[in-house]
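To fix ideas, we now present one chain and its tokenised fold:
***
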Amino acid sequence: MDDLEFRRRLYADPQDTDTQLEQCAAQDPEKRALQSELKELDKSLHQALNIDVPEGLSEKLILQQSLVEFKQRKRRTRTHLALAASIAFAFGVSFTLYQQPGPINMEQHALAHIYHELGSLEKSTRDINLTKVNTKLASFGGQFNELPSTVTYAKYCDFNGQKSMHLVLQTDTGPMTVFIVPAKNQFTTDSYFSDQRFDGAIYQSEKANLIILGDKGSDLEQQKQRVEETLQWRT
């Protein structure tokens, strides 16, 4: 089996236990390392899909839809990786996994976004001051009269195609993520969602959707009230 065929088959299915494939990996340390890396990635994808269904019909529907979409993306990604592997090998370049965007609701996108940016939850030794936060928030027509909590992360983000703000606040119960997504809503409503690690809530207001996520058991309502008390919008 040549290198191109080995990589093509491995990217298509990292768990392939074909004897010829295993023998080829055993004879080359680099191939063994690549096989091990892709097996770990595949294992992580399976773990991400293994989510306990919470109580409540709405939560069940959200997770069922999310599960189907992740499986579809996983199949598409493997096909894309197999093609990309052939091109990468031919030209001697490396590439990274990229998940194609698709239809997704706000709850699913918030969870996917926070898992993609888990590093943002690590407490920084350098806090971000009010001026820097308001400079970014000004483009949305909003500002804080004071910070709702210590801010350790403040960046623009693409929230499902919408330019938004991604904040991480350090609270008494741990870090909380706040997405401020500009929107024109005809009415206000609250919705709640969760998975094995995070609790989340969406608070719709006239000017924006506030999406708050924290560790299981976090007091989302208290943080929401604090954000609303300190956040002002231009009329």
User: Anything to note?
Assistant: Residues 87-104 have pLDDT under 50 and may be disordered. Residues 98 and 174 are 30 Å apart (CA to CA). The beta strands are 142-144, 150-159, 162-171, 174-182, 190-194, 198-204, 208-215, 231-233.
